[in-house]
């Protein structure tokens, strides 16, 4: 599985757009990029997954450049409830039995 | 649709004892994975079961074991508990057939070893 690097922490204010970048220089051809969110004392929650270009759902957008060596999770107009740890994962979801390998994640703190 | 359930939610054990944790996946999900989360090591993969077979295993000692039943429910056992086994144990289920890394996590079992 490709190793990922993301900022340890980020601060933001309510209503702002937050962009969290993840570096994955050794991403393989069959790898996808997946983001999870985790609140304290809860299990992680799947946010979004993508392979290339842009993916958008009701929660976030994921931007992936052509070389796929990095990706950016974009959270529009964050609120206090978006304060959480965000994990970037890279791997081939079609490979049977593949484990999710979580890094340290990015702790996002949203203030009013 | 009911989510992933884990029992018990909290557990206190003494060093040297053993413990069994239970996980019921979302209906229709055949893959169950277990993770350990501690402040120092973060989220670490323990093992994954699919159709009652262990398909993948993380780097944990043999004291950690698991199994999956025909109804996809899974149990995890830790024998000869050590203080360092105190952690949040998370179970996650997925369909494992749609090319997605989308796993659904339960609320976890908080294990304290004294």
Taken in chain order, the helices and strands of chain B follow as: EEEEEEEEEEE
Shape of chain B: globular
The end-to-end distance of chain B, rounded to whole angstroms, is 37 Å
Strand % of chain A is: over 45%
Q: What's the average pLDDT of chain A?
A: 92
Largest interface: A-B, 24 and 27 residues
Q: How many strands, which pairing sense, and closed or not: the largest β-sheet of chain A?
A: 5 strands, mixed
Helix share bin of chain B: under 10%
C-alpha-based Rg of chain B, rounded: 13 Å
What characterizes the major β-sheet of chain B? Answer: 7 strands, mixed
Q: Strand tally of chain B, please?
A: 11
Q: H/E order of the elements of chain A?
A: EEEEEEEEE
Strand-pairing-aware structural class of chain B: mainly beta
Mean pLDDT across every amino acid position of chain B: 93
Q: β content of chain B, as a range?
A: over 45%
Q: Please state the structural category of chain A.
A: mainly beta
**What strand line-up does the widest sheet of chain A have?**
1-9-8-3-4
Please report the number of helical segments of chain A: 0
- What is the CA-CA span between the terminal residues of chain A? 38 Å
Question: Which word captures the global form of chain A?
Answer: globular
Radius of gyration of chain A: 13 Å
How do the helices and strands line up, and which of them pair or pack?
The complex is a heterodimer of chains A (112) and B (114).
Chain A: E1 9-13, E2 18-23, E3 32-38, E4 45-50, E5 53-56, E6 61-64, E7 70-75, E8 84-91, E9 106-111
Parallel strand pairs in A: 1-9
Antiparallel strand pairs in A: 2-7, 3-4, 3-8, 5-6, 6-7, 8-9
Chain B: E1 5-7, E2 10-13, E3 19-24, E4 31-38, E5 42-50, E6 53-57, E7 64-68, E8 74-78, E9 87-94, E10 104-105, E11 109-113
Parallel strand pairs in B: 2-11
Antiparallel strand pairs in B: 1-3, 3-8, 4-5, 4-9, 5-6, 7-8, 9-10, 9-11
In short:
The complex is a heterodimer of chains A (112) and B (114). Chain A has 112 residues and is mainly beta.
């Amino acid at each position: 599985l490709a190793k990922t690097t993301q900022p340890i922490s980020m601060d933001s204010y309510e209503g702002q757009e937050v962009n969290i970048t993840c570096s994955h220089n050794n991403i393989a051809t069959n790898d996808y990029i997946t983001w999870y969110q985790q609140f304290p004392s809860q299990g992680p929650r799947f946010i979004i997954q993508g392979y290339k270009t842009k993916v958008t759902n009701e929660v976030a957008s994921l931007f992936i450049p052509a070389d796929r060596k990095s990706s950016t999770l974009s959270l529009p107009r964050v609120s206090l409830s978006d304060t959480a740890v965000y994990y970037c994962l890279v791997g081939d979801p079609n490979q049977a039995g593949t484990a999710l390998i979580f890094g340290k994640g990015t702790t996002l703190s949203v203030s009013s | 649709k009911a989510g992933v359930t884990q029992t018990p939610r909290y557990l206190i054990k003494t060093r040297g004892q053993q413990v069994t944790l239970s996980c019921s996946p979302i209906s229709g999900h055949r893959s169950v994975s277990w993770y350990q989360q501690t402040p120092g090591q973060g989220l670490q993969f323990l093992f994954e079961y699919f159709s009652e077979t262990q398909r993948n295993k993380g780097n944990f000692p043999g004291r950690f074991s698991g199994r999956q039943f025909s109804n996809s429910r899974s149990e995890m056992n830790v024998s000869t508990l050590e203080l360092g086994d105190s952690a949040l144990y998370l179970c996650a289920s997925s369909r494992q057939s749609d090319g997605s890394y989308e796993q659904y996590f339960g609320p976890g079992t908080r294990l304290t070893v004294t």
